[in-house]
Amino acid sequence: MNVLQSGTGAASAPLDNATIGVDMSLPLAASVASLPGRAKVAIAFLIRDSDAALVVDSGRIVAGMTGNAHYPAPVPALADVVAARNAYVAAVNAVKNGSLATVARRQLRAQLVAQLRSLALYVQQNCNGDAVILLGSGYPAQKAHQPTSLLPAPVNLRLARGTISGQLKARCNKVPKAGSYQWRYATAAAPTAWTQLDPTLAASIMLSGLVRGTDYLVQVRAVGTRGPGDWSDASMLMVV
């Protein structure tokens, strides 16, 4: 049974922030508040991501870099990144109890993180500080500040199989002052092709009509008076 609840991923080697000019104290962001020509790649997610979240983020980067005219000759080669990601995803999907399986998964994660760290340097050098070009790579950009009026990302997102085949039950901790919750899901094979669902008032939802034998990623965000906040870390579970 291939099951992964959102836990913390294994720590990798320290990132070389000085090399690519990244301030790890700044939060990850899907948009950038830097001045034009001064956008910088954010790579803190390489350490902070759970296994499921790294599957999503690395898939977004592969999709963004594939055929991207702004990055004609990636270093390392995109094929090497894809190979490292495929090996890591296979290890995550085949997760088993035991120290040997855990060590193997952590080693494959470290190899993927090393590839993504090197690729971030290439992106930084070739985007010329242009935020649009940078974000087109699939990497996030640093952000000067986080809006205090938006609600934080929900935490402790967990998944369970429903009583009927093709169902997943998702739930998270309640977020204070949240009026509703937005949910989205994607398959691990296509982690950027999200299906967004109608908001729910409760901090839970039942997903139905899913394909058996498929690993699904789920995220949630809280919606307040100023709009939706950040998406949570992803959780992943195979549907039976």
Can you put this structure into words, describing what you see?
This protein is an alpha+beta fold. The protein folds into two domains: 3-136, no CATH class; 158-238, Sandwich (Immunoglobulin-like), CATH 2.60.40.10. 31% of the residues lie in helices and 19% in strands. The strands form two sheets. Strands 1, 4, 5, 7, 8 and 9 form a six-stranded antiparallel sheet that branches. A three-stranded antiparallel sheet has the order 2-3-6, with no helix packed on it. Helix 3 packs antiparallel against helix 4 and helix 4 runs antiparallel to helix 5. The longest helix is centred in the middle third of the chain and has 29 residues, at 99-127.
Mass-distribution shape: globular
Tell me the strand percentage band.
Answer: 15-25%
- SSE pattern, N- to C-terminal: EHHHHHHEEEEEEEE
Round the mean pLDDT to the nearest integer and report it.
82
Amino- and carboxy-terminal Cα gap? 9 Å
Number of domains: 2
- The total strand number stands at 9
Q: Return residue spans where pLDDT drops below 50 for at least 5 consecutive residues.
A: 1-36
Radius of gyration: 18 Å
Number of helices: 6
Q: What portion of residues is helical? A: 25-40%
